[in-house]
UniProtKB/TrEMBL annotation:
InterPro entries: AhpC/TSA (IPR000866), Thioredoxin-like_sf (IPR036249), Thioredoxin_domain (IPR013766), Thioredoxin_ResA/DsbE_sf (IPR050553)
Pfam family, one: AhpC-TSA
Residue span, Thioredoxin domain: 38-175
Lineage: Bacteria, Pseudomonadati, Bacteroidota, Sphingobacteriia, Sphingobacteriales
Name of the protein in question: Redoxin domain protein
Length: 420
């Protein structure tokens, strides 16, 4: 009884081993460049249409005597495939004695046969394929596998199949065929993830986020051939301002709620991070336009530079008499801490936040005038106190007058077309 039971157990183990062995044999291992074509591939039956002798089924082994076999995976919806097949049809005639060019598709004969006949191709095509694709998996077609002397010598896209390359492969010469790389693209991930892997270059990439805890600042830097600018946890209006390199007093809001773009209370929900990567050969105008367009598109705004008549304060020299507190830049000694008048105008026009009807200051004085013994904090304190500023300017032989001038302003409004 025990002997009988032992025999049954051993038989079961043998059957299980044979089944596992068969399953391992049936596992298809995808082939790469340098791999040998197995007997399973050579002898696998392939459904075919448009074969010269009328065959319905072939094997690759039927063409074992060819010096070169090119498997061309394609589909009827693939425009590059169709373009490539016109060329392959001609190349097959040219190298008919030494080469087999074999189109392969997963599509049915009822779909493929009229498609081929309509175009007058003489090439046959494998149809309803699942076997060859399992050995040569791919994502994008055309996908071409070059086989010589029973081995895979190259895997390419459609552009590499030229008369020169085919002749080189037949002659076994060293030909430089570009390897076709198929990447399983994940649409939920940024495409920049694949650049380093494929050694591809980045042309332009912009990123806009909400508030990011721990970040701050604004700047421009370079990295290889890229120029990068960033605005971290900034108000929307401050990004417009910095991108266009203007002061807040040159920005007008039209049909836009100030609270939506100014963020006076520093609400984190109204702070944004923006980063732009762009080729370093692009101009400043390209950068400005890209940033403002991105903001306009996302926030449904319309920003543009327009000419407007606005009130401003014009500063002039009262007369040409000398003043010990006004010097020419050329008169300054190395230890003199005089300030150029342009810098004083910049201070008067600068504010850290936007507000409506901010004063605009314009200088109509000689550009080389320098203020001697001047305190910028004192100037800043008089920005909204025109009477005190006028008194201070008079001491320096200067006048200030409110006038209407046509100035270029950055106008930000609701994009009514985008709102619809």
């Amino acid at each position: 009884m025990q002997k009988t039971l032992l025999i049954i157990v051993l038989a079961a183990l043998c059957l299980n081993f044979n089944a596992n062995s068969q399953r391992r044999d049936n596992i298809i291992k995808p082939l790469s460049i340098g791999d040998t074509i197995s007997e399973n591939i050579w002898k696998a039956p392939l459904n075919i249409i448009n074969e010269l002798t009328g065959k319905k089924t072939i094997t690759l082994n039927d063409y074992h005597n060819k010096k070169l076999i090119i498997l061309d995976f394609w589909a009827t919806h693939c425009v590059p495939c169709i373009k490539s097949l016109y060329r392959l049809d001609t190349l097959q005639d040219l190298f008919n004695q030494d080469v087999l060019i074999l189109p392969v598709t997963y599509e049915s004969s009822t779909k493929v046969k009229p498609f081929i006949l309509k175009r007058g191709w003489k090439l046959p095509s494998v149809v309803n394929d699942s076997i060859l694709k399992a050995y040569f998996p791919h994502i994008v077609v055309p996908h071409q596998v070059w086989i010589r002397d029973g081995k895979v010598i190259s895997i390419t896209s459609g552009e590499e199949a030229t008369a020169n390359h085919i002749q080189g492969a037949i002659d076994n010469t060293d030909i430089a065929l570009h390897y076709k790389r198929d990447i399983a693209f994940n649409p939920t991930e940024p495409i920049t993830k694949y650049l380093q892997e494929t050694k591809s270059s980045l042309n332009t990439n912009s990123i806009l986020t909400g508030y990011v805890d721990g970040l701050g600042g604004t700047g421009v830097t370079t990295n290889d051939s890229m120029r990068i600018c960033y605005f971290l946890n900034r108000t929307l209006l401050s990004i417009y301002k910095e991108a266009n390199q203007i002061n807040y007093n040159r920005i007008q809001l039209d049909m836009v709620k100030a609270d939506d773009v100014v963020n006076r209370n520093y609400d984190k929900r109204l702070l944004y991070c923006y980063q732009l990567f762009m080729s370093s050969n692009k101009t400043e105008e390209d950068f400005r336009e890209k940033i403002t367009n991105d903001l306009d598109d996302y926030f449904k705004l319309l920003s543009r530079f327009d000419k407007h008549i606005v009130d401003c304060y014009v500063i002039r020299q009262a007369n040409t008499s000398t003043n010990p507190n006004l010097l020419k830049a050329s008169d300054l000694s190395s230890d003199n801490n005089g300030l150029p008048f342009s810098q004083i105008i910049d201070v008067l026009n600068y504010t850290s936040k936007w507000s409506p009807l901010q004063p605009i200051f314009i200088a109509e004085v000689a550009q080389n005038i320098v203020f001697n013994n001047t305190n910028l904090n004192e100037i800043k304190a008089m920005q909204n106190d025109i009477e005190s500023l006028s008194t201070w300017l008079k001491r320096h032989n200067l006048t200030i007058k409110k006038e209407a001038r046509e100035l270029t302003m950055l106008v930000i409004s609701k994009n009514t077309f985008r709102q619809q």
